[in-house]
C-alpha cells in the first residue's frame, strides 16, 4: 500500500492487516516507523471527525503535521489539485490526506506525484478510512464477518460511506442490504420498507441525509422520512439480541434516528469515532513504511 484511494483497491488480507494493527494500537502498542514524517491534511469540504481524527492519529505515530487551510490556499486562485500536491511534495511532504467535492479527484495524482495520497472522501465516491473504521467496529463486536447481515439505511446514491462499505463488506462475506426511498437508491437494488430486514440485521447502519449533494424534493419532510425510514423506539425494540446501531455521523437527530437512541446500549456511534483514531494510525503507519 503506497496510497489509500478506494476500498476497491484493497484485498481482504490488506484489510485484515490494518484491522489487526489498529487492535494493536488500541492495546497500547507504539508505532514502529523509522523516522518522523511530514503530513498535510487538505480538506476542501467541512469535516469534524475525519480531519481531527487524522490529525490525532498523525501525532500519535510521531508525524509532523504541517497546517494547511484550504480556505486560504492557492486553490481559490484556480490552482489545480495536481499543482497543489506537487508543491507540497517539493516543500517536503511525505503524505497528504485529501477530502474534495469532486468524485475520483485522485485520478489526476496517479502520475507525477511521489507523496503518499490518502483519500479522506471524494464527493459521492469513496471514503476508505471511514469504511475501515466501520469494519473494525464490526470486527470488535462479532469477531468475524462471514454471514453477518448488515442493513444500510438512507441516502445511498450520494453516500461515499455506503459505496465504500458495500464494496468491503461484500468482499468479506457480509450480506449487505439497502433501505431507502426509491429516488435515493442510485445503481443499487434497495428495499423500501423495514419489513424482512429489521429482525435479522446484525448491524443497522444509518446514513446522514446529504442536503449539500442534491436538491431535496419540495415534498420531502424530516418528519415523514423519520416515520418511514428512521430508527424509532419501536423499531429498535424489534432488533435481534446482540444487534448494534452504527452511523458515520454527523447525525441528524430525530430524523435518521431518535435522539435518545444515539447513545443507547446498542449504539456504537461514538465508539466508531474512537475506533477511527486507531484505524487511521494503522493506515498511516502502513503507507508511510513504504515511503
UniProtKB/TrEMBL annotation:
Superkingdom of origin organism? Bacteria
> What GO biological process terms are annotated to this protein in UniProt?
'de novo' pyrimidine nucleobase biosynthetic process; 'de novo' UMP biosynthetic process; amino acid metabolic process
A Pfam family recorded for this sequence: OTCace_N
Q: Carries keyword Cytoplasm? A: no
Which pathway does the record list? Pyrimidine metabolism; UMP biosynthesis via de novo pathway; (S)-dihydroorotate from bicarbonate: step 2/3
Quaternary assembly:
Heterododecamer (2C3:3R2) of six catalytic PyrB chains organized as two trimers (C3), and six regulatory PyrI chains organized as three dimers (R2).
What the protein does comes down to: Catalyzes the condensation of carbamoyl phosphate and aspartate to form carbamoyl aspartate and inorganic phosphate, the committed step in the de novo pyrimidine nucleotide biosynthesis pathway.
Protein name according to UniProt? Aspartate carbamoyltransferase
Q: Which source organism?
A: Lysinibacillus antri
Starting at the broadest rank, the lineage of the source organism is: Bacteria, Bacillati, Bacillota, Bacilli, Bacillales
Amino acid at each position: 500500500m503506497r496510497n489509500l484511494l478506494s476500498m476497491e483497491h484493497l484485498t481482504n488480507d490488506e484489510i485484515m492487516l490494518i484491522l489487526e494493527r489498529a487492535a494493536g494500537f488500541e492495546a497500547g502498542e507504539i508505532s514502529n516507523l523509522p523516522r518522523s514524517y511530514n503530513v498535510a491534511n487538505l480538506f476542501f469540504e467541512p469535516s469534524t471527525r475525519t480531519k481531527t481524527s487524522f490529525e490525532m492519529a498523525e501525532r500519535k505515530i510521531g508525524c509532523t503535521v504541517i497546517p494547511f487551510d484550504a480556505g486560504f490556499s492557492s486553490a481559490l486562485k484556480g490552482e489545480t489539485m495536481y499543482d497543489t500536491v506537487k508543491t507540497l511534495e517539493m516543500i517536503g511532504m511525505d503524505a497528504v490526506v485529501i477530502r474534495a467535492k469532486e468524485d475520483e479527484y485522485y485520478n489526476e495524482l496517479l502520475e507525477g506525484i511521489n507523496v503518499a495520497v490518502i483519500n479522506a472522501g471524494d464527493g459521492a465516491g469513496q471514503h476508505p478510512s471511514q469504511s475501515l473504521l466501520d469494519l473494525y467496529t464490526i470486527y470488535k463486536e462479532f469477531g468475524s464477518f462471514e454471514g453477518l447481515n448488515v442493513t444500510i439505511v438512507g441516502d445511498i446514491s450520494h453516500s461515499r460511506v455506503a459505496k465504500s462499505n458495500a464494496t468491503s463488506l461484500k468482499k468479506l462475506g457480509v450480506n449487505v442490504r439497502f433501505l431507502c426511498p426509491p429516488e435515493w437508491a442510485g445503481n443499487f437494488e434497495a428495499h423500501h420498507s423495514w419489513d424482512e430486514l429489521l429482525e435479522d440485521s446484525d448491524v443497522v447502519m444509518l446514513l446522514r441525509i446529504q442536503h449539500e449533494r442534491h436538491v431535496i424534493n419540495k415534498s420531502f419532510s424530516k418528519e415523514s422520512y423519520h416515520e418511514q425510514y428512521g430508527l424509532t423506539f419501536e423499531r429498535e425494540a424489534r432488533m435481534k439480541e446482540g444487534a448494534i446501531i452504527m452511523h458515520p455521523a454527523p447525525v441528524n437527530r430525530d430524523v435518521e434516528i431518535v435522539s435518545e437512541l444515539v447513545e443507547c446500549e446498542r449504539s456504537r456511534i461514538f465508539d466508531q469515532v474512537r475506533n477511527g483514531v486507531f484505524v487511521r494510525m494503522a493506515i498511516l503507519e502502513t503507507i508511510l513504511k513504504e515511503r
